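Bumping my old thread because nobody answered last time. Still need a sequence for this structure:
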């Protein structure tokens, strides 16, 4: 094997030009085909079946599977899926700046509209339930990953789950307060 075979040992950009298994890269921050500047690899089993994995300079990981012969298919045509890593919760990596307003999290949850839908690419049109990323972005931009890198908007589950937990706690506090105000039923009554 020689330097540069399959992209091995090559230092510069290796933009893929065909379905060959190879290391790939692109230094263009405004690339139309890759999620962002970075590098990765691709593998295929025919000229129209190309799997690509990409790591950006910010350590985000993306993947996609192409059913075309063009490994530089625009991300607007075949979006990349972002792999989501577990959120870091370790105090050694944080500077705590205060307590979260639980009612703000509850208000955000109350502002969400839940929908039923099917994916456009789903031939069976299986009905699903969920939210619309563009609507959640208006409530709190931290709830979504923009379409800028992957070609499609996706949810960031870390702030969504944490706001859901905060909203549950806010409601639990309200329930406890209401239970404290309630008088116990009189002996012999059918209440309770």
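Sorry it took so long. Here it is:
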């Amino acid at each position: 094997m020689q330097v540069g075979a399959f992209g091995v040992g090559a230092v510069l950009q290796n933009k893929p030009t065909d379905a060959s298994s190879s290391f790939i890269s692109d230094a263009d921050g405004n690339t139309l085909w890759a999620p962002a500047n970075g590098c990765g690899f691709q593998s295929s089993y025919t000229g129209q079946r190309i799997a690509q994995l990409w790591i950006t300079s910010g350590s985000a990981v993306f993947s996609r599977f192409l059913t075309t012969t063009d490994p530089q298919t625009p991300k607007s045509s075949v979006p990349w899926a972002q792999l989501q890593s577990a959120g870091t919760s370790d105090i050694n990596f944080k500077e705590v700046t205060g307590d979260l307003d639980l009612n703000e999290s509850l208000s955000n949850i109350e502002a969400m509209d839940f929908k039923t839908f099917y994916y456009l690419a789903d031939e069976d049109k299986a009905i699903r339930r969920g939210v619309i990323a563009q609507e959640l972005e208006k409530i709190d931009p931290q709830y979504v990953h923009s379409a800028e890198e992957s070609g499609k908007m996706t949810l960031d589950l870390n702030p969504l789950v944490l706001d859901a937990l905060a909203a549950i706690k806010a409601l639990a506090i309200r329930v406890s307060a209401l239970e404290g105000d309630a008088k116990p039923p009189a002996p012999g009554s059918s209440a309770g």
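Residues 5-83 form one domain. Let me know if any region looks off to you.
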